[in-house]
Design brief:
This protein has three domains: 72 residues, Winged helix-like DNA-binding domain superfamily/Winged helix DNA-binding domain (Arc Repressor Mutant, subunit A); 129 residues, Nucleotidyltransferase, domain 5 (2-Layer Sandwich); 174 residues, 2-Layer Sandwich (Nucleotidyltransferase, domain 5). α11 packs across α12. Helices cover 43% and strands 19% of the residues. The chain is an alpha/beta fold and 415 residues long. The strands form four sheets. Strands 5-4-3-6-9 form a five-stranded mixed β-sheet, sandwiched between helices. It is globular. The structure holds zinc ion (ZN). Zinc ion binds next to loops.
Length: 415
């Protein structure tokens, strides 16, 4: 895990905690692994490693996972993390759905639910649905309450990392500032962490997805909205007030369509999945021929981005051109990001994933042509394999992080 917060401790305690963290990280990333292999790749003595793995085994955080291949003499035990030692709850309030999951320490979702909500239902109803969704998942999972480390909630919108409040934005304009942290704490009485959806997705990719092992990552969430999570030097960069990465509100066309933020011609108003659906509806209503009419049984209100993807992949000209242009526009945005950040990897995720085969060449053509050569040569652009789950799974990362960094010491001290 990417450990970032350090408790104020002194001398021997600090050294011991650091050793414990190093050993756990080694087992987490390289397990199954022997004590000897941990010693060989760290500067910790065999005696100390042996004491730490013995203690972690007693607690139950690590388990023996077979023995090493025989190379003569005694075969040493291989250790691995017991990923089901504790669990965390991940939630996502996206533009259209409430997602909930229960993940183990490896970020594997053991349970996952997504329920649609109607933004016209209003704040009180949707918040009630969120609480109910978490409640239902806890009941379904039948996991003892003390096995939960906490709840992580990611929000499509602006949030304040200092007090855990957020403004769902721009789709829920009348909600104002919502004290999500207080609401969850009051109802569930366990630690909770609030973050932005794109930031959560970036953390999921860095820890469990196609960003593993990378230190500078930009995660682009291209769906109904268009957001970005930024990982710099291995750490999440949130900006001074938590709103860094509002990539979708870069103004690209002064005469473009009105964005929900109030400005004209934001990238989100041109290249989000919602924008593409609106553009397709507009063209069909103007009489442009398309198989989308049959796919929606001639009810244009049924049109969504998945159907446009399906039509585009079947060579429907209208759908193909729209998705191709979407790729070019996202490519324009990526050019700016490459020039500004010089990132190791840009990960494209969200609903756009279904159009990967059309978007990629369109996007790459623009990037090859327009980005500065040196940063471009060092930036890989890949698609996420986690789909829209990353914003939910990633919400558990700060909870899991806090466990390995801080809470584990409480378990050890109790032994
Ligand atoms: Zn905007």
């Amino acid at each position: 895990m990417n450990i970032k917060k350090v408790n104020p401790v002194k001398g021997q305690t600090l050294l011991r905690q650091r050793n414990v963290s190093v050993v756990i990280e080694k087992i987490y990333s390289d397990g199954p692994i022997t004590n000897r292999d941990i010693v060989n790749s760290t500067s910790i003595s065999f005696a100390k490693v042996n004491t730490i793995t013995t203690t972690l085994s007693k607690i139950g955080l690590i388990v023996q996972d077979g023995k090493e291949e025989s190379i003569g003499g005694r075969r040493s035990a291989l250790y691995n993390i017991n990923h089901n030692f504790r669990y965390s709850i991940g939630c996502q309030l996206s533009h259209t759905r409430i997602h909930t999951c229960i993940c183990n320490l490896k970020g594997e979702p053991l349970f996952y639910e997504a329920i649609p909500y109607n933004k016209e239902d209003g704040k009180d109803t949707v918040l009630k649905m969120l609480i109910e969704a978490i409640d239902q998942l806890i009941k379904k999972a039948k996991i003892p309450r003390d096995k939960y480390l906490g709840i992580g909630l990611s929000i499509a919108g602006l949030y304040n990392p200092n007090d855990g409040s957020a403004i769902p934005f721009p789709h829920l304009v009348n909600w104002g500032v919502v004290a999500f942290k207080d609401i969850l704490a009051k109802k569930f009485k366990m630690p909770n962490y609030i973050l932005n959806v794109a930031n959560a997705a970036a953390l999921a990719e860095q820890n469990f997805g196609v960003g593993m092992g990378k230190n500078s990552i930009l995660y682009l969430n291209v769906g109904t909205g268009l957001g970005m999570g930024i990982i710099l030097n291995g750490e999440l960069f949130e900006g001074v007030s938590g709103s860094a990465g509002e990539f979708g509100h870069i103004s690209v066309d002064d005469h473009g369509p009105l964005c929900e933020c109030g400005n004209l011609g934001c990238l989100e108003a041109i290249a989000s999945t919602r924008a593409i659906v609106n553009q397709a509806k507009d063209l069909i209503q103007k009489g442009v021929n398309s198989s989308l009419l049959d796919l929606t049984e001639r009810d244009i209100n049924k049109l969504d981005f998945d159907l446009i993807c399906q039509a585009a992949l079947s060579s429907d000209k209208l759908a193909y051109n729209l998705v191709d242009k979407m790729g070019q526009n996202i490519g324009e945005g990526i050019v700016t990001l490459i020039n500004l950040f010089n990132p190791e990897r840009i990960i494209v995720g969200g609903k756009i994933g279904c159009a990967e085969n059309i978007v990629t060449p369109a996007m790459m053509h623009v990037v090859q042509k327009r980005a500065l050569e040196m940063p471009r040569r060092n930036t890989e652009i890949v698609f996420s394999k986690m789909g829209s789950h990353s914003g939910t799974i990633g919400a558990t990362v700060p909870i899991i992080d806090d466990f390995f960094k801080n809470k584990i010491n409480t378990f050890i001290d109790e032994k």
